[in-house]
Structure formats: C-alpha cells, structure tokens
Write a structure and sequence with these properties.
about 260 residues; mainly alpha; globular
Length: about 260
C-alpha cells in the first residue's frame, strides 16, 4: 500500500497542476500564443508525434555519444592523475575552469573550429565538455577513497603504482563512478540541447531545433510539446541509470 501511495502522489500533484493550468487559461481567456492550455499541448504532441520522436532521438543520440566520449576521457585522465598527485594538482584547475565556463560562451568558437557545414561535431564536443567534469570528479574522488588498511597491505606486499590503481583504487571508485555517470548523463542532454540552440540551424534537427522553429512561428503549444518530450526523455534516462546504479552497487557489495 505504501508503495502504491508513493507512486500515486506525484501523479496526483501533476494532475492537480494540469487541471489548475487548464482552468486558469480558460477562465482568464489567455491567448493561445502566450500560454496554451494543457489540452492544446496534448493535441500538439499527438499531431507532431512522429516528428517529435525523430527529434528526440537525434538529441538523445548526440547526448549518448557525448556521454560515452566524456566517460572514456574522464576515466582515462583520472586513472593517469590517480598515479601522480602532482598531475592531479596540475589537471584539476583546468578541469574546473572547463566546468564553470558557460557552453553558450564558447559555442560560437567551437562552431567555427568544427566547420559551419558540420554542426553535429560542435554539438557533440560541447555536450562532452558539459558531461566531462562530474565523471572526472567522481573518478578522482573514488580513486582516493580506498581503505587505508588495504593501502598499507599493498605497501606490505610491495605493489607498484599501476597495481595499486587497478586492483585497489579503481574497484573502490565504482560507487563514485556510477553517481558521476548518472549526473553526467543529465548534463549531456542539457549540453546537447544548449549546443543545438547555439548552432541555431537545422543542421541538427533535435528538440532544440523544434523549439526554435516553433518559437519563430509563435506556435507556443508546439514549443511546450517539445519541452514535454524532452522532460519525459530525461526522466526515462534518469530512471534507467538509477536501475543500472542499483545493479552495479549490488554487484560491487557482493565483491
């Protein structure tokens, strides 16, 4: 019963908010171009469902490719700096600087470097930049979280740096890596959407392009429909990564 109540609580709140939105738009006669009611947004979703599915796949594909590249780069660099405290002190400020730099600020430069005819390269690169830091930070933190008693045991057996990283610190970093990837996946989607906005063309026909196209035509219902699909995609991806994290943690504790 408790599980059912917990599942129904967010749905009930969502229905109440949607009903209030619908009634407010109808009673106050809000213009459709300013704020359409949920019923109009639902019609827009159904009318444009094939195009929205294709656009969401384009955005999701970019985000997944960016997440994979960010994961490989972040874990590779983290393993390298994990063997040398000096390298970590040298690399971390640069990684932090990339993390706090707004994607929109560097997007025009990246678009020029990638080539105007290849906006997809710029979008992937910008999404990689956004997703890189949480994975890198989680990996570095995890590599430093090994049990001190096990560290002394490795000292006793004369383990070298590579053996210490691969056999002790990397297994200890698994929970941090899983959490970093969960955060990085959400940021990869955000980075992909922001990069598509910065590209400002139909070269990448993702959800951001749908929002821009509908906004230029004052089709507010279609804009909100694209936002709804984007939100659903984010929730599904987050739930999937939560499940992967649970399975990964169960395996890790078993080890």
């Amino acid at each position: 019963m408790t599980r059912l109540v917990n599942a129904l609580a967010p749905l009930t709140l969502l229905l109440v908010l949607l009903l209030g939105w619908e009634l407010a738009c109808r009673l106050m006669q809000v213009p459709a171009y300013f704020l359409p009611p949920p019923s109009a947004v639902a019609r827009a979703v159904m009318d444009d469902l094939p195009a929205l599915v294709l656009a969401s796949w384009n955005t999701l594909a970019v985000a997944l490719v960016a997440l994979l590249l960010a994961s490989l780069a972040a874990q590779g660099i983290a393993l390298i700096v994990g063997m040398s405290p000096l390298l970590e002190r040298a690399v971390r400020p640069l990684a932090s600087a990339l993390q706090v730099t707004p994607v929109v600020a560097i997007a025009p430069l990246v678009l020029i470097w990638a080539g105007i005819d290849h906006p997809e390269r710029a979008v992937i690169f910008l999404a990689v930049l956004v997703a890189f830091f949480p994975i890198f930070s989680g990996a570095v933190t995890g590599l430093r979280s090994a049990d001190p008693d096990l560290e002394r045991l490795f000292d006793l057996y004369g383990a070298n740096r590579l053996q210490r990283v691969l056999r002790l610190r990397l297994p200890s970093a698994v929970p941090f890596l899983l959490e970093g990837h969960k955060v990085g996946a959400g940021l990869a989607i955000i980075g992909a959407v922001v990069a598509e906005f910065a590209a400002g063309s139909g070269g990448i026909r993702g959800l951001a392009w749908r929002i821009l196209d509908a906004g230029n035509k004052l089709q507010t219902a279609k804009m909100i429909a694209a936002l709804v699909v984007l939100g659903v995609m984010g929730v599904v991806l987050h739930a999937l990564l939560n499940q992967i994290e649970r399975l990964g943690m169960a395996w890790w504790r078993g080890r």
